[in-house]
Amino acid sequence: MKIDIHVHTKKVKTGDADTRNVTADRFNEIIRSTEVRILAITNHNHFDIDQYKEISDSVKDVCQIWPGIELDIQENSKRAHLLVIANPKNVEAFNQRCESILAGQNPNTFAISIAATVENFEDLDCIYIAHYMNKTPNLGDVELGVLSALISNPKRVIKEAANSISAGIFISHGHNSIYGSDIQDWNDYEVLSQGLPDLRLPVDSFEQFCLLLDKNEATINTILQKKTCDKVTIAPFGAGEIMNLDIYNDINILFGSKGTGKTDILKSLSAYYNSIGYTTSVYMSNDRHVNDVFNLRGQNFNADVSDFGVDECVTEIEFIKTATEVAITSLGKYRQHFSGEETNKISQKLKIKTINHIDEAGAARALDEVSRILQEFKAFKEFLSDNTLVGDLIEKELIEELIDVLERILLSLKVKIDNQFLEASSLKLLNQIVSIFNQEIAKKTGIPQKPTGTGFIDYARNRIKIEQNIRKINLAINTSIASIEDYAGDLGEKGKLYCKTSLMIQNGSFVNGAYETVKNINKTPQKDFANNIISISRHVYSNELFEKIADLKHIDGIEHIRNISDLLQFNRVFVLNGNLYNPSNGESSMILLHKELTEDKEIYLIDEPEKSLGNDYINDVIVPIIKEKALLGKKVIIATHDANIAVRTLPYNSIYRLRENGLYYTMTGNPFFNKLKCINTSRAELDWKEISMKTLEGGKSAFGERGKIYGN
């Protein structure tokens, strides 16, 4: 939720740019593309109530528009600018006062004193925002003292800085400070708005904003109570120190000197949430290295080629390993049959003495083909049923109609399979009967039975089947598998780091010492197997074929190679911008913290995330992620010594562990009403900002750059 207290919607003075002019429609379009939720219109020496109402109405569902004016102040012979912003409820009266003081005046030369300004506007519930220091033309401390003395509540005087750094410096010195866009060109507003102040607490109205300026504790607590909060009771240091803590679905910070038990509190909170059904653990910085987290050595790594669309060739490999030669019928068997004489009187009376076998191969092929088609239709039906996107893209009636058609097709194919199976089985049974019949005839006649075939067809089919299987295996082992790149983390300016897993199927020529086998198989039998497959493929139609198959069978460890996955090798490395990269220990911390925070969890428990990390990385990468988690309603609980995290995130809850005179105290509070209160004793309250600056590393600089977040 961003706020912009200094916006121009009109070219009023001669020196104003035309690009300050904006229509209500264009304003509406721009504001809806930003996160700005409160905006004050403050044109130079001019207030247009009609434009105000038109603009306010156009964005009333997304943004509060406050009426204001940027006045030229003449005080102590000095000319300066002062923004006067009124309660929107008083806009009509505000318009009348503006018309009164500006009647007949030239906006280029108009000026008014501080006293006259207060006299005209103070009763309209206003806040006063003065250009200060490097925001020129500015009011000095003397003039601001005059203004503060004249109004009923000096906290309504805010100093406008030129940028977030200046605002932060003013805040660190105890001033109320903020900054606005002072927009020159509305074409730039969407980009400029990204750097505007964030309102850490949601502000529903002008009145509520003013109460926050007063650091009104009741108002702050009312806002905090709207946030989901767990009342947690833990005893991290034993029954003698029971802690009752408020843990918000937002940012909760644990801080204090080293050795005050912050880690114990985190572990106790983890145990508490685990006991009520969550799964949590405390992230400990530097506890592990990124190499181990991403399993760079590949311990227990597993993958199958089928995951990448490669056939496992289980049946084919088994067939080759068990393949034998099919004999051709010798001419001697024909000679024995035809040269024999029938001596048996019974056999001379036999009418049928020879029956030929019927070819079974055609029926078997037809059965396989119908079975394959059936499986493809089944897979298509499962795809339609399981894929939710199909339901989003295609009308339900059409899908139901298609599924009905598929079911009828499947039923028809099942009938055809049954018929084909019956035919194939019948032929097989018939041929078995023929063989028995021929054997009996041979016994009766005393003549060797006539060979049922030459064997040439079976011989050729066997060789062709070997070739088909070898070709399929060869195709598989020569298939390239695309590398897998898993996002590891952000290394800031260096770029994004990825964990790259490369997979290779041993094809007989692959040699790389950096690769390890995926399965529990040595590299040597993998390579021997692949080379033997290649050799077999070259000798399919030679007399040496079964010598090569015998060589395959005698490979040491061949029994462990059952599929193509058994030939897999892998290598895992980190890459940055496409190049091999070895993260340092500090970079390992960056990556693992980033990984922890980007995981989708309900509760994040993090111990000292700043270890080994630079301030820029914490501020530019980690803090924005923490804020994003808070916006999503996650519980973020961080123990830290770093002000970048403890201060710049403006936590809803700060838990401070104090060690004093040998005793330990737990104090809670927040930056909004700037107090820390002891939860178990009546110890005096502490100043949140003072303690933060004193205790946290980089506390002063963090407060000095805190203007990006309005929460002082």
Q: How would you describe this structure in keywords?
A:
alpha/beta, seven-stranded mixed beta sheet, Rossmann fold, eight-stranded mixed beta sheet, 712 residues, 4 domains, 25 helices
The total strand number stands at 24
Look at the helices and sheets and give the structural class: alpha/beta
Kindly report the oligomeric state of this protein. single chain
Helix fraction by DSSP (H/I, runs of at least 4) = 40-55%
Task: Please indicate the count of domains.
Answer: 4
* Global shape: elongated
Termini Cα gap = 16 Å
Return the CATH class of the largest domain: Alpha Beta
Question: What do you see in this structure?
Answer:
By secondary structure, the protein is α/β, with parallel strands linked by helices. The protein folds into 4 domains: 2-218, Metal-dependent hydrolases (TIM Barrel), CATH 3.20.20.140; 228-280 and 601-710, Rossmann fold; 289-328 and 456-582, no CATH class; 333-453. The chain is built from 25 helices and 24 strands. It has an 8-stranded mixed sheet, sandwiched between helices. A 7-stranded mixed sheet has the order 1-2-3-4-5-6-7. Strands 13, 14, 15, 16 and 17 form a 5-stranded antiparallel sheet that branches. Strand 9 (229-234) and strand 10 form a beta hairpin. 33% of the residues are buried. Residues 705-712 have low confidence and may be disordered.
